[in-house]
């Protein structure tokens, strides 16, 4: 019994030693001088001095001040011996908060700003920039991790071609023109896009051209006075007219633009003068992306699929009243092809 007690005591003692070792091994200690600390004061007097600090080089620390010079930011080298801080002459393209982050190793330091603004095709993008310093505090490299070169995006020229044949009631014709005005309005807010409109039945005519839109970006005035022609549904002939007469520089189309056609119809084509195979082949050759919208119950799904460049560019609505419900989805897909 006494021998068992000794073994148990020995086991408990070893367990205490083991636990003590677990506490000691991972510990890394350093000394703080609490009686005579070195205090570095901001040369510029801003409240953000010391936002980031790291030991770098012999007898010195790097100290950042993201609010220096009205928020431009800066980084200082502060020397332990005399307590003086000198601003490093770093030239960096930044729109502010330089020094918001800082990291140091034995041989190099990295100082960063999260705010570098880039303008591309009328849009503004926000990136970050980091400056790498060597042990001599010389600026060796600049890094922009998410920066991308501005790629020229071609402008967009779109034509809306709508059916105004005799199968459409006057009330429904007004609903369709209201829908077209809403689509036109989405082009008004896009500086790189312009739109033209044509209508068709047995005959086809332009409501307004690209040059008219460029001169007056107002949907109501551009569509003012548009009337219904009535007649038959000559869809292929109407598409050919748009390709031949409206996608032309002489009426305001831009030579480097992406070209897009939106066809709105409520019925099957009964064109006696042209056919889909011929005109769609021409559209493909000229690089025109095409959307097709069928309204009601009398249109042909097969014809819509012939007209549209891709199946996802086909839209169907049960009535002219429901056209308004597809404006957002239609315009989103139109501008996503840019």
CATH architecture of the largest domain: 3-Layer(aba) Sandwich
* Name of the CATH first level of the largest domain: Alpha Beta
Rg over CA atoms: 35 Å
The string of secondary-structure elements, in order, is HEEHEEEEEEEHEEHHHEHEHEH
Structural write-up:
This protein is an alpha/beta fold. The protein has two domains: 52-143; 156-336, Rossmann fold (3-Layer(aba) Sandwich), CATH 3.40.50.410. The protein is 28% helix and 28% strand. It is built from nine helices and 14 strands. The chain has helices at 2-24, 68-71, 170-188, 210-215, 219-222, 235-246, 276-285, 301-307, 327-336, and strands spanning 53-55, 60-65, 74-79, 85-87, 101-104, 109-120, 123-133, 139-143, 156-163, 193-200, 204-208, 258-267, 288-298, 314-317. A hairpin with a 3-residue loop joins strand 10 and strand 11 (204-208). Helix 6 runs parallel beside helix 7 (276-285). Mean pLDDT is 88; it is low at 1-12 and 24-28. InterPro entries: ECM_Assembly_Org, Integrin_alpha_N, VWF_A, vWFA_dom_sf. It comes from Ameiurus melas. This is VWFA domain-containing protein. Pfam families: VWA (PF00092).
List keywords for this structure.
single chain; 338 residues; alpha/beta; Rossmann fold; six-stranded mixed beta sheet; four-stranded antiparallel beta sheet; disordered N terminus
In short:
This protein has 338 residues and is an alpha/beta fold.
Present the secondary structure layout.
Layout lengths: L1 H23 L28 E3 L4 E6 L2 H4 L2 E6 L5 E3 L13 E4 L4 E12 L2 E11 L5 E5 L12 E8 L6 H19 L4 E8 L3 E5 L1 H6 L3 H4 L12 H12 L11 E10 L8 H10 L2 E11 L2 H7 L6 E4 L9 H10 L2
């Amino acid at each position: 019994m006494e021998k068992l007690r000794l073994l148990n005591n020995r086991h408990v003692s070893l367990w205490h030693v083991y636990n003590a070792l677990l506490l000691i091994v991972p510990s890394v200690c350093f000394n703080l001088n609490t009686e005579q600390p070195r205090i570095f004061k901001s040369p510029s007097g801003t409240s953000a001095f010391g936002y980031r600090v790291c030991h770098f080089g012999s007898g010195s620390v790097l100290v950042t001040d993201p609010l220096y010079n009205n928020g431009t930011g800066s980084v200082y080298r502060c020397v332990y011996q005399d307590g003086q801080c000198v601003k490093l002459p770093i030239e960096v393209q930044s729109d502010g908060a330089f020094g918001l982050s800082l990291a140091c190793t034995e041989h190099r330091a990295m100082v960063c700003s999260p705010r570098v603004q880039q303008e591309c095709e009328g849009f503004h993008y926000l990136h970050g920039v980091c400056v790498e310093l060597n042990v001599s505090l010389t600026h060796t490299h600049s890094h922009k991790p998410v920066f991308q070169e501005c790629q020229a995006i071609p402008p967009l020229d779109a034509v809306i071609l709508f059916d105004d044949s005799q199968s459409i009631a006057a009330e429904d014709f007004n609903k369709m023109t209201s829908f077209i005005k809403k689509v036109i309005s989405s082009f008004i807010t896009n500086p790189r896009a312009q739109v033209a409109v044509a209508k068709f039945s047995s005959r086809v005519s332009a409501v307004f051209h690209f040059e008219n839109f460029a001169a007056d970006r107002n949907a109501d005035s551009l569509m003012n006075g548009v009337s219904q022609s009535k007649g038959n549904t000559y869809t292929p002939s109407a598409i050919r007219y748009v390709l031949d007469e409206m996608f032309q520089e002489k009426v305001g189309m831009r030579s480097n633009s992406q070209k897009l056609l939106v066809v709105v119809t409520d019925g099957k084509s009964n064109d006696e003068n042209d056919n889909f195979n011929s005109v769609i082949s021409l559209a493909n050759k000229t690089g025109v992306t095409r959307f097709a919208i069928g309204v009601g119950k009398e249109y042909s799904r097969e014809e819509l699929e012939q007209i549209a460049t891709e199946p996802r560019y086909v839209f169907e609505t049960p009535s002219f009243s429901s056209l308004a419900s597809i404006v957002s989805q239609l315009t989103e897909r139109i501008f996503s092809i840019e």
